[in-house]
């Protein structure tokens, strides 16, 4: 297959996760009933019991909250539809064994915000580890050397600047004419600059394969939830890999 993974973040990470986690227990989606790998899903958890005897249902993007959780793999429109129809409330009641639940009306927005923060936090961790490559000149040098694993552009990056780096990346990978390009993030330069503590972060890249996979996984979950996957069907017509959800 000719299409590089920069154009298929959702698919490649999902495919990789399946290959690595065949021995891990799968989970069943509380909405669709389908199964998927934990790393590709979004976890929901409940707060400690409040004075009125209810628990708030909250997104848990890092899957670290204590207690039982429920996993979803639908996109935001799917979650909104499930909330509107009442399907979500029934599924949550079964997942949390009849606990009195308060399901906030803005759960979809909270989930998207949580996934966006998780991605920014992951980029920050890779930055502190010295693995994130910033600056157009440095990125272009690494791109032409053929060592980039992931190339990313801010949502408000100029087309001209992005195309130049995309071209350098294709030259380095010896895939000129393929149309391969970096991934445009659902984050603007202001958000990236604040998260990374640098001025005017517009383009960023990773040469370390493990770091690229970690970032790609966080990115693919956010893009999937937003309903804007990084790429469409590949050369063979295979659709990008989207996975749906489960309970603990």
Automatic annotation (TrEMBL):
UniProt-annotated stretches for the region Disordered: 1-26, 226-248
Entry-linked InterPro entries: Ribosomal_eL30-like_sf (IPR029064), YlxR-like_sf (IPR035931), YlxR_dom (IPR007393)
All copies of domain YlxR, residue ranges: 27-109
Domain of life: Bacteria
Entry-linked Pfam families: YlxR
Classification via SUPFAM superfamilies: L30e-like, YlxR-like
Protein name (database record): DUF448 domain-containing protein
Organism of derivation: Parerythrobacter jejuensis
Phylogenetic placement of the source organism: Bacteria, Pseudomonadati, Pseudomonadota, Alphaproteobacteria, Sphingomonadales
């Amino acid at each position: 297959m000719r299409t590089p993974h920069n154009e298929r973040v959702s698919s490649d990470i999902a495919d990789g996760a399946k290959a690595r986690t065949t021995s891990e227990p799968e989970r069943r989606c509380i909405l669709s009933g389908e199964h998927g790998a934990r790393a590709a899903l979004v976890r929901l958890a409940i707060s400690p019991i409040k004075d009125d005897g209810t628990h708030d249902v909250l997104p848990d993007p890092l899957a670290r909250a204590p207690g039982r959780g429920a996993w979803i793999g639908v996109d935001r429109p799917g979650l909104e539809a499930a909330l509107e129809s009442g399907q979500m409330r029934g599924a949550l009641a079964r997942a949390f064994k009849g606990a009195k639940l308060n399901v906030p009306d803005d759960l979809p927005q909270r989930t998207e915000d949580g996934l966006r923060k998780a991605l920014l936090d992951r980029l920050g961790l890779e930055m502190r580890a010295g693995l994130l490559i910033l600056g157009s000149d440095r990125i272009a040098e690494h791109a032409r050397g053929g060592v980039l694993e992931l190339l990313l552009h801010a949502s408000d990056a100029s087309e001209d600047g992005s195309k130049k780096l995309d071209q350098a990346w294709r030259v380095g990978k010896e895939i000129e004419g393929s149309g391969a390009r970096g991934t445009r993030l659902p984050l603007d330069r202001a958000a990236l600059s604040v998260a990374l503590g640098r001025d005017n972060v517009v383009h960023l890249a990773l040469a370390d394969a493990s770091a690229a996979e970690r970032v790609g996984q966080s990115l693919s979950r956010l893009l999937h939830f937003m309903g804007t996957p990084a790429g469409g069907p590949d050369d063979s017509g295979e659709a990008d890999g989207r996975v749906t959800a489960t309970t603990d």
